[in-house]
């Protein structure tokens, strides 16, 4: 049976120790829409935000029991980002 008090403490710890600090770092990245920053691709803020997400996710996934170090979902996100970047860049 699930110990809800233990789960609550775990979620509170993860939230406070990893999620909130990561969100604070993410908010510091001046990643703006191309409508507000015509040179957004050159500034590299989106790349920085995606890289931060990837690092955070890799650290969390690597800690899960039974993982084999292959993170297909991260590759999918990275490829999606690259396609979107190229499309938006071509529009400018």
> How much of the sequence is in beta strands?
under 5%
Rounded Rg: 17 Å
Number of strands: 0
- Average per-residue pLDDT, rounded, comes to 75
Q: H/E element string?
A: HHHH
Shape descriptor reads elongated
The end-to-end distance, rounded to whole angstroms, is 56 Å
Helix percent reads over 70%
**How many distinct helices?**
4
Tally of domains: 1
Largest sheet: none
Structural class: mainly alpha
Low-confidence stretches: 85-92
Folded structure, characterized:
This protein has helices at residues 4-28, 40-43, 45-62, 72-91. The protein is mainly alpha-helical. The longest helix has 25 residues, at 4-28. The protein is elongated. The termini are far apart.
Name a few traits of the molecule.
92 residues, mainly alpha, 4 helices
Short description:
The protein has helices at 4-28, 40-43, 45-62, 72-91. The protein is mainly alpha-helical.
Summarize the topology:
Layout lengths: L3 H25 L11 H4 L1 H18 L9 H20 L1
């Amino acid at each position: 049976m699930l110990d809800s008090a233990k789960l609550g403490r775990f979620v509170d710890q993860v939230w406070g120790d990893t999620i909130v600090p990561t969100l604070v770092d993410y908010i510091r990245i001046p990643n703006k829409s191309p409508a507000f920053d015509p040179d957004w691709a050159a500034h590299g803020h989106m790349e920085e935000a995606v890289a931060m997400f990837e690092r955070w996710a890799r650290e969390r996934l690597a800690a899960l029991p039974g993982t084999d170090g292959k993170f297909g979902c991260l590759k999918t996100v990275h490829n999606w980002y690259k396609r979107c970047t190229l499309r938006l860049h071509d529009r400018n």
